Amino acid sequence: MKKLTIFAITMMVFFSIGATPIPEKNPGKNANKSADGFSFIRTHRQGKGAVVSWSFSTSNASGFAVQRTYEDPTDPASIWVDICDTPCNSSRSYKTHDDPPYPGVINYRVMAVMSDGNSVLSDVSTIKITSH
Question: Which fold has domain 27-129?
Answer without folding.
Answer: Immunoglobulin-like (2.60.40)
